[in-house]
Amino acid sequence: MTVDIAQSNTRGIASLFNSAVAAWAIAAAWEIGALDELHRARTLDTADFADRGGLDPASTTGLFRALSSVGLVRREGTVVTALDGFDEMYRNKSFFHWLARGSAELFQQIPAVLRNENRTGSFYRRDSAAIAFACREIDQVTYAPAFWAAMGRVEFPFTRVADLGCGSGARLMQILDRHPGTTGTGIDIARPALEVARAEADAAGLADRTAFLHGDVLSLEPRPEYADVELLTCFMMGHDFWRDGRRENAIATLRRLREAFPSARRLLIGDATRTDLPDTELPVFTLGFELGHDLMGTFLPTVADWESVFAEGGWELVRTNRIEMTVGEVIFELA
Question: Rounded to 5 degrees, what angle do the CA atoms 171, 173, 175 make?
Answer without folding.
Answer: 70
